[in-house]
Design a protein that fits this description.
The chain is an alpha/beta fold. It has eight helices and four strands; from the N terminus they run ααβααβααβαβα. It has two domains: 34 residues, no CATH class; 110 residues, Phosphoenolpyruvate-binding domains (TIM Barrel, Alpha-Beta Barrel), CATH 3.20.20.60. A four-stranded parallel sheet has the order 1-2-3-4. β3, α7 and β4 form a beta-alpha-beta unit. The protein starts with 6 loop residues before the first helix and ends with a helix.
């Protein structure tokens, strides 16, 4: 969930994501969320809540100012940051300092997650970055994007085909 800047927003996200008694998500009886099965009330909600993995994104200075309070909210399993949005907010987007500044914030995120028992997810643009952040403590790696992977493949194919004589 992006733009989680305060513990109050984090709590709203948990409430909207989890069924009672852990949250306030609407149950709506039987449906695809229950595999069209019925079961004892309470047991069904506990089972469904156990299937939910809730990750939130830190994308602002305000979020980092509230990092410990946000991570203290029960029901959050993982944390990540939005590197481009955070860089933009911090005024370093597109500057020579962007990489170092964002890496400092990534490190702060990993350290706080360790204090609070949360998993860390990192959005990375290269295998080397993935390796770096796994070594630093990230457990979930979101490598590039489907659009970027397709773009790289198309560019490589075009380069090879244009080189054929």
């Amino acid at each position: 969930m992006p733009q989680v800047d305060t513990p109050e927003i984090a709590q709203e996200v948990v409430n909207a994501s989890l069924y009672a008694p852990d949250g306030l998500r609407g149950m709506a009886g039987i449906g695809n969320h229950t595999d069209y099965e019925t079961g004892p009330m309470g047991e069904t909600q506990r089972f469904l809540n156990a299937q939910i993995h809730l990750a939130i994104m830190f994308e602002s200075q305000q979020a980092f100012d509230n990092i410990d309070a946000i991570m203290s909210v029960p029901g959050i399993h993982a944390v990540t940051l939005g590197p481009s949005d955070l860089a933009q907010e911090l005024g370093v987007f597109g500057t020579p300092d962007q990489g170092k500044v964002i890496d400092d914030y990534r490190t702060r995120l990993i350290e706080a997650a360790a204090r609070h028992g949360k998993d860390v997810s990192m959005l990375v643009g290269s295998i080397e970055q993935g390796e770096q952040w796994i070594r630093a403590g990230a457990k979930i790696i979101c490598y590039s994007s489907e659009v970027e992977i397709l773009r790289r493949g198309i560019m490589e194919a075009a380069k090879r085909l244009h080189a054929v004589k």
